[in-house]
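Suppose a colleague, Dr. K., hands you the sequence of a protein chain of 449 amino acids and asks what its three-dimensional shape might be. Before reaching for any lab equipment, you can write down a predicted structure in C-alpha cell form. Begin with the sequence itself:
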Amino acid sequence: MAAVGDVDVLVVGGGGREHAIAVKLRESPRVRHVFCAPGNGGTAAEDRMTNLAVGDADVEGLVKAALEKKVGLVFVGPETPLVAGLVDACDAAGIPCFGPSRAAAELEASKAFSKDFFAKYDLPTAAFKNFKATDYDAAVKYVEDEYAAGREVVVKASGLAAGKGVLMPQNLEEAKAAVKEIMVDRAFGDAGDEVVIEQLLVGEECSCMAFSDGKVASMMLPAQDHKRVDDNDQGPNTGGMGAYAPAPCLTPDLKVKVQDVLQRTVEAMAKEGRTYKGVLYGGFMLTKDGPLLLEYNCRFGDPETQVLLPLLASDLFEVALACAQGELMARVPEVKWKDQAAATVVCAAKGYPGSYPKGLPIFGLEEANSVEGVKVYHAGTKQAEGSLVTSGGRVLAVTGIADNFTEALSRAYQGVDKIRFDPPGGESKSLHCRRDIGKHAIERLAASS
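The predicted structure, expressed as C-alpha cells, is then:
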C-alpha cells in the first residue's frame, strides 16, 4: 500500500460531486485524511474519510471545523457557501480554500450581473435584457416585441435557484406565463428579484470548466450532461441525469475559442477587483455563430465532476492548493488528463424531480463497484440503523471508465443494472434512470469514423 501523506483536507458539501472530489483528493500522496461536511452515506463508508455534522451553509461552523482539524486545504463543492463568503472567512483565518471569493462568486449568484459583465468585456453571449421585480409590464412588453420580431426567448431568475430558475417557453403565451411565474407568483422567491430575458440559442450545449488561480484558466476536458429526466430529452429539467467526457462536440477549433473566452474572463474578473480562484464553469451553446456563453457557475458541475475527476491524471490536491494560493502555473505548469473516456448514469428515486419517497433500501452497491472500471458515487444516501437508504432524489451516480466511449458507457450501465431500491426477488420499480446517456456522443463518433 502506498504511503499515506501528512495533510488533512476538508471537503464542503454532501452530494455526488463532493464524494467524487473526496475520492480524488484521497489519491494524492500528500493527503492523509479527508473530512466531509456534511458528507453522505458514501463518504461515511470510505477508508480515510470522516463525515462532520456541519452543514455546508454554516460558514462559521465550517471555519471552526477546519481550524479544529488543522486541515491544509478546504475544498468547496456547492455554490451556496461560496456565495455566503466561506472563502473570505477561510482567508481571514489563514486557511487555504479552493473556490472563488464572495465577490467573484457573483458570476453565478447573479445572472443579471454576469450578463452585464459579458457585455462590458465583449464575451460572446445571447442578446438579453435585465428587468427588476418592479418592471413586470416592461418585461412582458419586451417578450411580446421579441416574438413579434420572430425571436424566441428564455426566461431566467437572476439569483440562485438550485438549478431550477431557467424557464424555456415554447411560444409567446408560455413566455409571458414564465415572466409572471418568476416576477408575480415569486416561484423562485428572492432569486426572482431580477429577471434576465434572453434570446433562445440553438445548438448543442457543452460544459467547459477550468481550474483558475486568479491569473490563468487551465481548461479541463469538455463534458456534456443530460438535464431532462426521461430518455430522448423528455420530461422536466433536473439537476442532471448523466454525463460523459470528453465531449466530442467540442472540436479542436471550438476548444481554442472556448479557452480564449475562459482566459479573458479570468483576466476581466481581476480587472474588476474580483480575483477568480477555483473552478470556472462555463455553459456554452455551440451555435452556427460559434460558442456562445449561456452562463457561468462558480464550482464543479454535478454530475460532470463524476466523469471529469476520474480522468484527471494530475494530483487534485496539488492543483487545488496551487490555485488557492495563486500559483498554478509555477507549481503545476501543465494539468494532465488521461487518454480515456468516462460516462456516468444517475440512479434517481422514481418521482424525481417531483415528489419521491425517501428511506428506500439500497441493494447491489458492492456488486456494482466490482464491475471493472466502475465507481459508484453517492449523492442522496445516508446510514440508517446500520444500513444504507436513499435520502434524496438523485441517489447515486454510476461512473464507468474505459479506453473508449462505447466501453465506458457499457461499464456504467453494467453497474447500474446491479443496483436496486427494492428488495431482491420482486419487481424493480423504485429506481429511475435514463437509458440513453451518451447516445449523441456515440452517434457523432460513429459518423466521424
